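We close this part of the discussion by returning to an individual protein. The amino acid sequence and the backbone structure tokens for this protein are reproduced below:
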Amino acid sequence: MTEDRERRLIDAFLTATGTLVGDYDVVEMLQTLIDDIQELFDVDAVGIMLANQQQELEVVVSTSEASALLGVLQLEAGEGPCVESYETGRTVWVADLEDMRRRWARFAEESERAGFASVHSVPLRSREAVLGSMNLFRIEPGRLNEQDAVAARALTDVATISILQQRDADQAARTQQQLQQALDSRVAIEQAKGFLAHTHRVDLDTAFAMLRAHARSHGLLLQDVARAVTERRLDLAQPESADTRR
């Protein structure tokens, strides 16, 4: 590991562990986490699913529209590596399209169409509690190298602990409410993406990049920016060039 990459990995851990003290926004924390993972590791897209109050998975954050759609596809079909990782509480490797086709034909077809050849799904798990799954998509076939796999697992564990850290003996309902708020926030973000895509004639990835850039530059929560856009309290100017990977 290069010195620069090691420093950035340490920064990612510091950011994730910073949520262990005080209040924080779950969606913002998870989006930052997957942005860091995509930048640091040998992956091309990342997404996270969380279980709602009915224990049904929903896509909460993603680094691209393609990875988000693959998540939705699995939820509609009720199967796929991300769903299996959540249901079993175990890491699921799918190293190539051939293996995918043997296990989930439709998922393999859509993954190939999206340009992904392999996926690595990690449960958001702490002891017996499984909150969802983090899913790392790769254009190239093959598994993550061991170093990246261990680091990704560690970051996922920190995120899980961050979500659960406020739970005590009588706080299970509060934790579920917090997760539901995260899912509700995602709805607001998706609405804002659609609004910007329509009004600015850009794709959804570019629309998300506009929201994210404004939130970061002004120190605002992503969900607050999204609601301001859809309520027409904020007019975002289209950047000359948007990084659609973030």
